[in-house]
Amino acid sequence: MTLLPFIEWTASTSLSQALSTSTWAFAVTESIHLLALSVLGGAVLIVDLRLLGFGLRTQTVEKMAREAQPWFFGSWAVMIVTGLLLFASEPQKLYSSAPFAVKMWCLLFGTTFALTVRRNVTLAGDLDIPKNATGLVL
Fold first, then answer.
1. Is the pTM of this model over 0.85?
2. Which one of 10, 23, 45, 124 is most buried, counting C-beta atoms within 10 A?
3. Nearest-CA neighbor of 71 among 110, 107, 43?
């Protein structure tokens, strides 16, 4: 089964035509996509640094994970929506792009990991990590 008919249909839609011919639409969409990526990265980084024992040691890992969760899911949703718009702007080019395929597999695996393993570890409730990565008490 090939996705080529879907790709050709996507390229022929008015949304695709508008995005690919507009002077600013792609740039604005890409900017929003990258801003959402940075927010998502920040939400992951702050919890991971706490897991390693760095920063905000007065809060539990579970509390940090719960507070970062809306930022994670919100930015993930914005990235999916803007990513679909970016895909619609040049579907035929992305259909044959190996780096795009790798990116989509990484998105799938990263999302699966975040919703299973990472979520179970951070929301376990009894994690207390008083030391940093070097083993020294801060």
1. no
2. 10
3. 43
